[in-house]
Design a protein that fits this description.
The complex is a heterodimer of chains A (140) and B (179). Chain A has one domain. In chain A, 77% of the residues lie in helices and 0% in strands. Chain A is built from 6 helices and no strands. Chain A has helices at residues 3-15, 24-34, 40-52, 60-82, 88-98, 102-138. In chain A, helix 1 (3-15) packs antiparallel against helix 2, helix 1 packs across helix 4 (60-82) and helix 3 (40-52) crosses helix 4. Chain A is globular and about 60 Å long. Chain B has helices at 6-17, 25-36, 41-53, 58-101, 105-134, 139-154, 159-172. The longest helix of chain B is centred in the middle third of the chain and has 44 residues, at 58-101. The chains are: A mainly alpha (140), B mainly alpha (179).
Chain lengths: 140, 179
Amino acid sequence: MSLGVLYLLLLKATLTSFSGMGGLAQIRQDLVVTHAVLSDDELSRAVLFGRSTPGPIGVYVVSVGYSVRGVAGAVVAWLALASPAFLAVPLLVALRRWLHLSRVRGAVDAVVIAGGTLLVPSGLLLARDAIRQVASLWGG
Amino acid sequence: MTTPSLRELGWLVARDVNRTVGGGALELMRRSLARRQWIDERGHGVLVAVSRFTPGTNLLAYCAALGWTCHGPAGAVVATMAGSLPGAAIVAALTAAAASLDRWPAVRAALVVATLVAGGLVLASAWALVSPYLRGSRKAWTVASIALAAAVFLAGATPVRVLLAAAIWGALTPGKEPS
């Protein structure tokens, strides 16, 4: 996978999440299922490292990038993590005008709730993967 | 209110954002900013609202908005880098180390346990996102929003389409206007 495609896929995941872990389902869909450049095991580790490290929770995408393309992949993933943050600047101006509108607030709330709901299958998949690995370790 | 130098801004963001694991950094930032009188409580509230509305990692959006408020484009870049680079470097180093240690059975066993823990952490993140809404005044609407997202996902939609459906649902079923 080229670095450009990796950046765009990770950017898609970070852009469509409204929480640190919100893009997890999208990353699994794109990198594990569709492109098969990442294993569920590597994704699990990325989540663990991201959650065990000080700083933003979403930093797990750097581990994803490293697993796919090494150091260059980690740099690209960091760029995909950091670049959506700059959308806050125009929003800072626009939100002062529109956030009081109930329809805008309702849309934001519903997206946050949907992001949380999407995390449930991802968490269950990680747990299922771990239980399978335990079984294979004990079975030799 | 006083204006920090770029260096002071970068140092404060790097220190406060990278001092916590799993959350709490915004509270540290609020206290530091108020103590230094760089941003008042109301300004902090606006930045938090902006960060909640910005796609991606909320904490980094807060950093970018804070940096912009204090120092324009240069401040946004410095604050975002200060907030994300230390953690990114640690995560990359951990991943590199895990790859080379993977061949040891004890490490593999530890990673299996870690995977199980990661699953629990993801579920905890889901709960942390949704639970404030379940405790709020629109419980039925929140449950309906969860059901809608789950139904659209189970119908085979990609995560992006699930979020789009949620946004449309939220815009069509707004709560009351704030007084």
